[in-house]
DNA sequence: CATATTCATAACCGAAGAGTTATTGAATTA
DNA sequence: TAATTCAATAACTCTTCGGTTATGAATATG
Protein backbone atom coordinates (compact mmCIF):
# COMPACT_ATOMS: atom_id res chain seq x y z
CA UNK A 1 0.00 0.00 0.00
CA UNK A 2 2.46 2.59 1.25
CA UNK A 3 4.12 4.39 -1.60
CA UNK A 4 7.40 4.93 0.26
CA UNK A 5 7.54 1.28 1.25
CA UNK A 6 6.97 0.31 -2.33
CA UNK A 7 9.81 2.52 -3.53
CA UNK A 8 12.06 0.89 -0.95
CA UNK A 9 11.30 -2.71 -1.92
CA UNK A 10 11.55 -1.88 -5.60
CA UNK A 11 14.86 -0.09 -5.16
CA UNK A 12 16.41 -3.06 -3.38
CA UNK A 13 15.14 -5.62 -5.86
CA UNK A 14 17.81 -5.09 -8.50
CA UNK A 15 21.17 -6.79 -7.74
CA UNK A 16 23.32 -4.13 -9.36
CA UNK A 17 21.54 -1.40 -7.45
CA UNK A 18 21.70 -3.32 -4.20
CA UNK A 19 25.43 -3.80 -4.72
CA UNK A 20 25.88 -0.06 -5.13
CA UNK A 21 24.01 0.54 -1.90
CA UNK A 22 26.09 -2.10 -0.13
CA UNK A 23 29.29 -0.40 -1.26
CA UNK A 24 28.00 2.86 0.15
CA UNK A 25 27.29 1.14 3.44
CA UNK A 26 30.84 -0.19 3.65
CA UNK A 27 32.72 2.93 2.70
CA UNK A 28 31.30 6.35 3.42
CA UNK A 29 31.00 8.97 0.71
CA UNK A 30 31.89 7.93 -2.81
CA UNK A 31 31.78 9.71 -6.12
CA UNK A 32 29.87 8.47 -9.14
CA UNK A 33 33.19 7.73 -10.81
CA UNK A 34 34.39 5.56 -7.94
CA UNK A 35 31.12 3.66 -7.88
CA UNK A 36 31.17 3.21 -11.65
CA UNK A 37 34.68 1.76 -11.49
CA UNK A 38 33.36 -1.23 -9.56
CA UNK A 39 29.78 -1.51 -10.70
CA UNK A 40 30.38 -3.41 -13.92
CA UNK A 41 27.99 -1.16 -15.84
CA UNK A 42 28.33 2.18 -17.57
CA UNK A 43 28.37 5.53 -15.79
CA UNK A 44 24.88 6.52 -17.00
CA UNK A 45 23.55 3.23 -15.68
CA UNK A 46 25.10 3.97 -12.29
CA UNK A 47 23.65 7.47 -12.30
CA UNK A 48 20.21 6.03 -13.00
CA UNK A 49 20.54 3.53 -10.17
CA UNK A 50 21.63 6.30 -7.83
CA UNK A 51 18.55 8.25 -8.88
CA UNK A 52 16.31 5.34 -7.92
CA UNK A 53 18.09 4.87 -4.61
CA UNK A 54 17.77 8.58 -3.89
CA UNK A 55 14.04 8.63 -4.61
CA UNK A 56 13.70 5.72 -2.20
CA UNK A 57 15.56 7.74 0.40
CA UNK A 58 18.38 5.21 0.54
CA UNK A 59 21.14 7.61 -0.45
CA UNK A 60 21.84 11.31 -0.30
CA UNK A 61 24.04 13.29 -2.63
CA UNK A 62 26.46 16.13 -2.03
CA UNK A 63 27.47 17.95 -5.25
CA UNK A 64 30.94 19.36 -4.99
CA UNK A 65 32.40 21.00 -8.04
CA UNK A 66 32.02 18.73 -11.01
CA UNK A 67 31.67 15.58 -8.99
CA UNK A 68 28.84 14.33 -6.81
CA UNK A 69 29.44 12.44 -3.60
CA UNK A 70 26.86 9.89 -2.58
CA UNK A 71 26.38 8.28 0.82
CA UNK A 72 24.01 5.70 2.28
CA UNK A 73 21.14 6.73 4.50
CA UNK A 74 20.81 3.71 6.75
CA UNK A 75 17.68 5.09 8.45
CA UNK A 76 15.84 4.46 5.19
CA UNK A 77 15.96 0.75 5.95
CA UNK A 78 13.73 1.06 9.01
CA UNK A 79 10.46 0.55 7.09
CA UNK A 80 11.93 -2.75 5.98
CA UNK A 81 12.64 -3.75 9.57
CA UNK A 82 9.19 -2.56 10.62
CA UNK A 83 7.52 -4.59 7.90
CA UNK A 84 9.42 -7.74 8.84
CA UNK A 85 8.50 -7.32 12.49
CA UNK A 86 4.90 -6.74 11.52
CA UNK A 87 4.81 -9.97 9.53
CA UNK A 88 6.36 -11.84 12.44
CA UNK A 89 3.79 -10.25 14.71
CA UNK A 90 0.90 -11.37 12.55
CA UNK A 91 2.35 -14.82 12.45
CA UNK A 92 2.85 -15.14 16.16
CA UNK A 93 -0.48 -13.67 17.15
CA UNK A 94 -2.43 -16.25 15.23
CA UNK A 95 -4.30 -18.83 17.21
CA UNK A 96 -3.05 -21.52 14.93
CA UNK A 97 -4.31 -24.53 16.79
CA UNK A 98 -7.74 -23.06 17.34
CA UNK A 99 -7.99 -21.84 13.77
CA UNK A 100 -6.96 -25.17 12.38
CA UNK A 101 -9.41 -26.97 14.63
CA UNK A 102 -12.31 -24.75 13.59
CA UNK A 103 -11.31 -25.06 9.98
CA UNK A 104 -11.35 -28.83 10.14
CA UNK A 105 -14.70 -28.82 11.94
CA UNK A 106 -16.04 -26.60 9.16
CA UNK A 107 -15.24 -29.02 6.42
CA UNK B 1 25.36 -12.19 -5.29
CA UNK B 2 23.44 -14.91 -3.49
CA UNK B 3 20.84 -16.47 -5.73
CA UNK B 4 18.42 -17.24 -2.89
CA UNK B 5 18.72 -13.72 -1.56
CA UNK B 6 18.01 -12.38 -5.01
CA UNK B 7 14.87 -14.50 -5.34
CA UNK B 8 13.72 -13.18 -1.99
CA UNK B 9 14.16 -9.49 -2.80
CA UNK B 10 12.60 -9.97 -6.22
CA UNK B 11 9.62 -11.84 -4.83
CA UNK B 12 8.87 -9.09 -2.33
CA UNK B 13 9.26 -6.26 -4.83
CA UNK B 14 5.82 -6.56 -6.41
CA UNK B 15 2.98 -4.99 -4.36
CA UNK B 16 0.32 -7.49 -5.38
CA UNK B 17 2.59 -10.38 -4.51
CA UNK B 18 3.64 -8.80 -1.23
CA UNK B 19 -0.04 -8.33 -0.35
CA UNK B 20 -0.68 -12.01 -0.96
CA UNK B 21 2.19 -12.92 1.33
CA UNK B 22 0.92 -10.50 3.98
CA UNK B 23 -2.50 -12.11 3.88
CA UNK B 24 -0.90 -15.49 4.40
CA UNK B 25 0.98 -14.13 7.39
CA UNK B 26 -2.24 -12.88 8.98
CA UNK B 27 -4.39 -15.91 8.42
CA UNK B 28 -2.91 -19.35 8.23
CA UNK B 29 -3.65 -21.67 5.33
CA UNK B 30 -5.68 -20.27 2.48
CA UNK B 31 -6.79 -21.68 -0.84
CA UNK B 32 -6.03 -20.10 -4.19
CA UNK B 33 -9.70 -19.23 -4.51
CA UNK B 34 -9.76 -17.39 -1.18
CA UNK B 35 -6.64 -15.47 -2.09
CA UNK B 36 -7.98 -14.63 -5.54
CA UNK B 37 -11.18 -13.25 -4.00
CA UNK B 38 -9.20 -10.45 -2.36
CA UNK B 39 -6.24 -10.01 -4.65
CA UNK B 40 -7.88 -7.80 -7.24
CA UNK B 41 -6.38 -9.81 -10.09
CA UNK B 42 -7.38 -12.98 -11.92
CA UNK B 43 -6.87 -16.49 -10.61
CA UNK B 44 -4.07 -17.30 -13.05
CA UNK B 45 -2.28 -14.15 -11.94
CA UNK B 46 -2.56 -15.26 -8.32
CA UNK B 47 -1.28 -18.72 -9.20
CA UNK B 48 1.73 -17.17 -10.90
CA UNK B 49 2.47 -14.99 -7.89
CA UNK B 50 2.21 -17.99 -5.62
CA UNK B 51 4.68 -19.78 -7.87
CA UNK B 52 7.18 -16.96 -7.46
CA UNK B 53 6.68 -16.87 -3.70
CA UNK B 54 7.14 -20.62 -3.53
CA UNK B 55 10.39 -20.54 -5.51
CA UNK B 56 11.63 -17.90 -3.08
CA UNK B 57 10.73 -20.21 -0.19
CA UNK B 58 8.20 -17.74 1.17
CA UNK B 59 5.22 -20.07 0.96
CA UNK B 60 4.52 -23.78 0.96
CA UNK B 61 1.60 -25.53 -0.66
CA UNK B 62 -0.54 -28.43 0.43
CA UNK B 63 -2.66 -29.91 -2.37
CA UNK B 64 -5.85 -31.38 -1.07
CA UNK B 65 -8.37 -32.67 -3.53
CA UNK B 66 -8.95 -30.16 -6.23
CA UNK B 67 -7.83 -27.21 -4.17
CA UNK B 68 -4.40 -26.16 -3.00
CA UNK B 69 -3.78 -24.64 0.40
CA UNK B 70 -0.94 -22.17 0.73
CA UNK B 71 0.73 -20.93 3.89
CA UNK B 72 3.52 -18.48 4.68
CA UNK B 73 6.97 -19.70 5.66
CA UNK B 74 8.16 -16.94 7.93
CA UNK B 75 11.64 -18.42 8.29
CA UNK B 76 12.24 -17.44 4.68
CA UNK B 77 12.48 -13.83 5.80
CA UNK B 78 15.62 -14.40 7.83
CA UNK B 79 18.04 -13.64 4.95
CA UNK B 80 16.34 -10.25 4.78
CA UNK B 81 16.97 -9.66 8.46
CA UNK B 82 20.54 -10.88 8.10
CA UNK B 83 21.17 -8.54 5.20
CA UNK B 84 19.79 -5.55 7.07
CA UNK B 85 21.92 -6.32 10.09
CA UNK B 86 24.94 -6.74 7.86
CA UNK B 87 24.37 -3.32 6.32
CA UNK B 88 24.01 -1.80 9.76
CA UNK B 89 27.17 -3.57 10.81
CA UNK B 90 29.13 -2.16 7.90
CA UNK B 91 27.81 1.25 8.67
CA UNK B 92 28.67 1.17 12.34
CA UNK B 93 32.12 -0.33 11.93
CA UNK B 94 33.30 2.47 9.70
CA UNK B 95 35.88 4.86 11.08
CA UNK B 96 33.98 7.73 9.64
CA UNK B 97 35.96 10.57 11.14
CA UNK B 98 39.29 9.04 10.25
CA UNK B 99 38.19 8.16 6.75
CA UNK B 100 36.81 11.57 6.09
CA UNK B 101 39.95 13.18 7.41
CA UNK B 102 42.19 11.06 5.19
CA UNK B 103 39.94 11.67 2.23
CA UNK B 104 40.15 15.41 2.67
CA UNK B 105 43.90 15.26 3.09
CA UNK B 106 44.07 13.32 -0.16
CA UNK B 107 42.36 15.95 -2.20
C1' DC C 1 40.84 30.77 -23.75
C1' DA C 2 40.88 26.05 -25.05
C1' DT C 3 40.72 21.49 -23.50
C1' DA C 4 39.58 17.86 -20.57
C1' DT C 5 36.85 15.78 -16.93
C1' DT C 6 32.70 14.61 -14.33
C1' DC C 7 28.09 13.66 -14.06
C1' DA C 8 23.26 13.91 -15.67
C1' DT C 9 19.91 13.46 -19.26
C1' DA C 10 17.95 12.04 -23.68
C1' DA C 11 16.88 8.60 -26.90
C1' DC C 12 16.70 4.22 -27.95
C1' DC C 13 16.68 -1.19 -27.63
C1' DG C 14 15.78 -5.77 -25.94
C1' DA C 15 14.44 -8.61 -22.20
C1' DA C 16 11.59 -9.44 -18.40
C1' DG C 17 7.40 -9.29 -16.04
C1' DA C 18 2.64 -8.62 -14.67
C1' DG C 19 -1.60 -8.91 -16.50
C1' DT C 20 -5.19 -10.98 -19.53
C1' DT C 21 -8.21 -14.91 -21.82
C1' DA C 22 -8.49 -19.69 -23.17
C1' DT C 23 -7.75 -24.30 -22.07
C1' DT C 24 -6.76 -28.52 -19.69
C1' DG C 25 -6.64 -31.96 -16.04
C1' DA C 26 -8.18 -33.52 -11.91
C1' DA C 27 -11.60 -33.93 -8.31
C1' DT C 28 -16.27 -33.20 -6.56
C1' DT C 29 -21.23 -33.37 -7.04
C1' DA C 30 -25.76 -34.10 -9.08
C1' DT D 1 -21.92 -40.87 -16.05
C1' DA D 2 -22.40 -36.05 -16.87
C1' DA D 3 -21.77 -31.60 -15.29
C1' DT D 4 -19.23 -28.47 -12.42
C1' DT D 5 -15.56 -26.56 -9.85
C1' DC D 6 -10.63 -25.54 -8.75
C1' DA D 7 -6.10 -24.53 -9.89
C1' DA D 8 -2.30 -24.76 -13.11
C1' DT D 9 -0.47 -23.87 -17.67
C1' DA D 10 -0.25 -21.96 -22.32
C1' DA D 11 -0.23 -18.22 -25.33
C1' DC D 12 -0.40 -13.65 -25.95
C1' DT D 13 -0.16 -8.35 -25.06
C1' DC D 14 1.68 -4.29 -23.12
C1' DT D 15 4.40 -1.95 -20.05
C1' DT D 16 8.41 -1.41 -17.29
C1' DC D 17 13.12 -1.57 -16.67
C1' DG D 18 18.04 -2.15 -17.05
C1' DG D 19 21.28 -1.53 -20.28
C1' DT D 20 23.54 1.00 -24.08
C1' DT D 21 25.54 5.24 -26.86
C1' DA D 22 25.35 10.13 -27.65
C1' DT D 23 25.10 14.61 -25.94
C1' DG D 24 25.15 18.59 -22.91
C1' DA D 25 26.29 21.53 -18.90
C1' DA D 26 29.25 22.66 -15.46
C1' DT D 27 33.74 22.70 -13.50
C1' DA D 28 38.65 22.21 -13.43
C1' DT D 29 43.19 22.58 -15.76
C1' DG D 30 46.95 23.71 -19.18
Automatic annotation (TrEMBL), chains A, B:
Domain of life of the native organism: Bacteria
InterPro entries in the cross-refs: ArsR-like_HTH (IPR011991), HTH_ArsR_DNA-bd_dom (IPR001845), WH-like_DNA-bd_sf (IPR036388), WH_DNA-bd_sf (IPR036390)
Coiled coil: none
Domain HTH arsR-type as annotated: residue spans: 1-92
The keyword Transport appears for this protein: no
PROSITE patterns: HTH_ARSR_2
Name under which the protein is recorded: DNA-binding transcriptional ArsR family regulator
Organism: Mycoplana azooxidifex
Amino acid sequence: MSEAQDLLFTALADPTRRAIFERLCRRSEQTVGALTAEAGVSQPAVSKHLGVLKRAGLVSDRPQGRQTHYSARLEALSPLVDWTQQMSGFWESRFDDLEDLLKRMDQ
